[in-house]
């Protein structure tokens, strides 16, 4: 149930390794879940329809697995940020510090400056996102690059957000401005949809699109195991309440120029600019021949999801965690009684990068699905960690 990376990985493994037939249902009119991409019709420029997707991983098994279905370009992700009409390098690094404070610093000098500015709050005592960020990077850099952006992204004041949201905020005292630290990184040479389609391309796999699971669940044979990758709260009829999500709105525009911003992603740090970032999709594939007089830009806006909106990022308040605990108990029972396993981003209410969704699906296959078919073991139904 669901043709995103989680569902397709399970389907591909079951079809190719166990030689079982697999039915993949998806309510959308295309496969691939949120990783789906399509050429913008006027320009042919590949657009990631549900937001820009950058593949990166340090997991060797996942890297070897995905390379069966696609080759990757040598794209390395870099992001810049505009604040008060000046452009800065991200993530915060020596270039950002030199640009922001308007002079050259050695790594040691920059370290000393940030340590002095961050000294006003002890990281161990930081009670919220704002305090945590100030304790790591100091107030001036926080106010420029984090406060406005975070407020826009979460529609919540940073003093009310958990410190954990920013736990990984990196500051580099070198000029290294690569966004990801992973061993492998790149974009699929012929696009995400070609990659996803090759995963589904097996005689044992049948994909049925435009099919909502909840419309057909009663017609499905009861004894066939189901891997459910849709929203877990919806599956249980919202018995423990609705889980909170943020959604995104994307505004796409074709411009009559060859290059709008000179890079793939530009963040907008000012609070009074309503969008968080602009993606210019041609820059994800500098190796391709795209029109030189047209470009596609997508502005991204963030807001709380209401019913009917696409759920994108779990909000994860303490209330959400309590509801999730209840859903996990129900899921364990459902596995034992009805052979339903829950996986993926929506099925576990976890933000998962693509490599994490694929890795977690491979583990579910090894630890539960294969033993079920090969050794007749029961599906124990613990949610994947
Ligand atoms: P999904 O891709 O969400 O697939 C779930 C599928 O289930 C969907 O196709 C949906 O239509 C279907 N479904 C749901 N309900 C029903 C129903 N009732 N009946 C039938 N079908 C149903 N990851 C990265 O590694 N790098 C990135 O740069 C990156 N950027 C991202 C940017 C955004 C804006 C978002 C939201 C995610 C990003 N991700 C990124 C994460 C990536 O999208 C996920 O890892 C991936 O989508 C997880 O796959 P999944 O199969 O768990 O879920
Ligand atoms: N963030 C920020 N300014 C930026 C980029 C990120 O304040 O220019 C903060 C923000 O709180 C955000 C978090 O860092 O929620 C994670 O950002 P990232 O870009 O990794 O998130 P994603 O790409 O998943 O939206």
UniProtKB/TrEMBL annotation:
Cofactor(s) demanded: FAD
Pathway: Cell wall biogenesis; cell wall polysaccharide biosynthesis
Gene Ontology MF term list: flavin adenine dinucleotide binding; UDP-galactopyranose mutase activity
One of the Pfam families matching this protein, by short name: NAD_binding_8
Domain UDP-galactopyranose mutase C-terminal stretches: 144-351
Top-level EC class as recorded in UniProt: isomerase
EC number assigned by the record: 5.4.99.9
Listed SUPFAM superfamilies: FAD-linked reductases, C-terminal domain (SSF54373), Nucleotide-binding domain (SSF51971)
GO biological process terms, semicolon-separated: cell wall organization
Catalytic activity, as annotated: UDP-alpha-D-galactose = UDP-alpha-D-galactofuranose
Family note: Belongs to the UDP-galactopyranose/dTDP-fucopyranose mutase family.
Quaternary organization: Homotetramer.
Record function comment: Catalyzes the interconversion through a 2-keto intermediate of uridine diphosphogalactopyranose (UDP-GalP) into uridine diphosphogalactofuranose (UDP-GalF) which is a key building block for cell wall construction in Mycobacterium tuberculosis.
Protein name per its UniProtKB record: UDP-galactopyranose mutase
Originating organism: Geodermatophilus ruber
């Amino acid at each position: 149930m669901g043709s995103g990376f989680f569902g397709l990985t399970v389907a591909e493994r079951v079809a190719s390794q166990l030689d079982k037939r697999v039915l993949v249902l998806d309510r959308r009119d295309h496969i691939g879940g949120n990783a789906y991409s399509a050429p913008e019709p006027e320009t042919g420029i590949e657009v990631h329809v549900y937001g820009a997707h950058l593949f990166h991983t340090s997991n060797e098994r996942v890297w070897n697995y995905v390379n069966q279905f696609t080759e990757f370009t040598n794209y390395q992700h870099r992001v810049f940020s505009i604040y008060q009409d000046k452009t800065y390098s991200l993530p915060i690094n020596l270039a950002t510090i030199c640009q922001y404070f308007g002079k050259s610093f050695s790594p040691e000098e920059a370290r000393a400056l940030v340590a002095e500015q961050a000294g006003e709050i002890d990281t161990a005592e930081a009670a919220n996102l704002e305090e945590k960020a100030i304790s790591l990077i100091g107030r001036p850099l926080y106010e420029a690059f984090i406060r406005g952006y975070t407020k826009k992204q979460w529609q919540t004041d940073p003093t009310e957000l958990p410190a954990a949201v920013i736990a990984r905020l990196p500051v580099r005292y070198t000029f290294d401005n690569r966004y990801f630290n992973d061993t492998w990184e790149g974009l699929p040479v012929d696009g995400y949809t070609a990659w996803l389609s090759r995963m589904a391309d097996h005689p044992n796999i049948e994909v049925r699109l435009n099919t909502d699971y909840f419309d057909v669940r009663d017609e499905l044979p009861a004894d066939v195991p189901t891997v459910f990758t849709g929203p877990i709260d919806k599956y249980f009829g919202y018995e423990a309440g609705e889980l909170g999500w943020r959604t995104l709105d994307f505004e796409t525009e074709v411009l009559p120029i060859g290059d709008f911003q000179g890079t793939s992603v530009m963040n907008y740090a000012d609070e009074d600019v309503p969008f968080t970032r602009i993606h210019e999709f041609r820059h994800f594939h500098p190796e391709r021949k795209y029109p030189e007089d047209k470009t596609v830009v997508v502005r991204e806006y963030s807001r709380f999801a209401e019913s009917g909106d696409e759920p994108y990022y779990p909000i994860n308040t303490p209330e959400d965690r309590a509801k999730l605990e209840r859903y996990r108990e129900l899921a364990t029972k459902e596995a034992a009684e009805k052979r339903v396993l829950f996986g993926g981003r929506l099925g576990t209410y976890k933000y998962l990068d693509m490599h994490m969704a694929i890795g977690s699906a491979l583990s579910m296959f090894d630890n539960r699905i294969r033993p079920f078919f090969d050794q007749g073991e029961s599906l124990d139904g613990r949610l994947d960690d």
